[in-house]
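Quick one: structure tokens for this chain, please?
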Amino acid sequence: MPALEWSDLDRRAVDVVRALAMDAVEKAGSGHPGTAMSLAPAAYLLFQQVMRHDPSDPSWVGRDRFVLSAGHSSLTLYIQLFLSGYGLSLDDLKGLRQWESLTPAHPEHGHTIGVETTTGPLGQGIGNAVGMAMAARRERGLFDPDAAPGASPFDHHIWCIASEGDIEEGISHEVSSLAAHQRLGNLTVVFDSNHISIEDDTQIALSEDVVARYEAYGWHTQTVDWTQTGDYVEDVEALHQALEAARAETGRPSFIRLRTIIGWPAPNKKNTGKIHGSALGADEVAATKKILGFDVEKSFDVPAEVLEHAREVVKRGRAVRAEWDELYQSWREANPERAAEFDRISARRLPDGWTGALPSFEVGSSIATRKASGEVLSALAPVLPELWGGSADLAESNNTTMKGEPSFVPEEFQTKAFPGGPYGRTLHFGIREHGMGAILNGIALHGGTRPYGGTFLVFSDYMRPAVRLAALMGLPVTYVWTHDSIGLGEDGPTHQPVEQLWSLRAIPGLDVVRPADANETAAAWRVVLQHNDRPAALALTRQNLPVFEGTGDAEKVARGGYVLRDASDGQPSVILIGTGSEVEIALGAREILEAEGIATRVVSMPCVEWFQAQDAAYRQTVVPTSVRARVAVEAGISLGWREFVGDEGVVVGLEHFGASAPYKTLYEQFGLTAERVAAAAKASLAKTGADKGETTGN
């Protein structure tokens, strides 16, 4: 193990970190100073001596990744980014939590250089770190599978700092269990065990042996207790040895419990809930600075020699990067085809001609959109090696397994049904939807591959925090959510999504796509994969749907809504808008209405978000304002459709939960039929004054 070099300047730098944390929160008037103060030695040690990183090139693909799962302690990261030379200034620290600052309350990926992920909801960061570790292994398997351990330019480590709040959240169990199962030896979690949360002493709600819990998962565990002597001694050497031992353990993920005292060394507020989430106050700041030997009259005071010393990490980082570059260039010369593929995938650029692999389905045939999606994935497997994913134990139902592709799993855990190895492609999340969402985000954040994950649409609720963060970060994650309505039938209301579609459409930046048939599904996949700046959800049917003429045009599908069947005379009196399985119902209603002489247009709207993104001129060609009689039909709540049908339109949907019965019975009993849609169209026409009636005679 490398020796620890810890000088008086390093000790002084750690105290500067504490002072900056106090000053920043004091100036902001709010924030979380305590954890940043007590974690100052650990964070400084990681950035200065343990992690492989180059502040002059934050996007270096060979870097270690750092995840601050305890995102409320954002200063733990911001101050290290300032000291290490990532571009943050003292003025940025002074702007903590202020409008347009680079130091928002919780770190935001894409907003501040050096922030690897957006952490806010506790536990999500641990999941992201697990995803990054999985992505690193998959990337190595794609580009350098035969290199000796530690000898590949794709070998790097994931470091994560977590709090008691992270550990308490249920998502930590899901992702930690899976990390151990996957033998992720490239992952280390440092657990800041300070026994304090907002409600003060965590003993009020937490009494488990957390280390024993992680041992039970199968993690490599260590404890560094800075309180073990009875006095508080920040034994940096012990922590350094633990971190290096964790790096050396390649067969298991590592968990280090670091016992700290929050807010050290504040004389009155350390080890209390008061210092966790609020400013110390001027008197306590002054008293603490006096203990640290700082001028109590100065704020944001960083001695030049301390900053100069800390910035030496740039020189060290550049040297490590230069050494890595030699290895990387040797790999490129020896593997020109893999290098070209690596360049393409790193740029998130799709290969030429990839759309030629997409399947097409015979008009008039009948196939569930979940099955069509599975055939799309299998067809794309040979041409898009970056695409990989799986399901939360629902692969057979979600159709998320690419045919013939091995599973991503340690060899000892492969099964007869799912053979594979550590560099496989098919992911198995187990029944862990919440964890799956965060892991998918981590995979996308790591770069180098593109993930998808599946479950039933109704269980997207378990994933919602991670889905929201994917949208916030603009990550190209694809969700394959099947069994999208009461059309799943007999499983009943607990499994039948009703409110989920519009609930998900309410998330800014998430594309919710509900294709009408198999060809529209293939087109939807094409459009989704062409987007690199946002997540997308495919809501797919369990039941078979007929394949219609005209649904496979990707350019039309990309617009989110298009005219699938126009009125017989090209001048519609009424417009029917359908999504997913209800497009078939809308087409059936059109036949009824046209037979009665009512000119009817059917619009397929697979993605509301894509349609809303079109210019007004296009939207007018599809749903012209001059046609006021409109009906929207969808097997879910009507929330949101009023925008499209207007005051005189009608929405045919469900404002209640489903029931357990065959799906055709449910559609009939709940009025999701062509006849009811036709009647709704006549009602809408009547609202517009178009229903004039007939003379009855005397």
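The chain has a mean pLDDT of 97.
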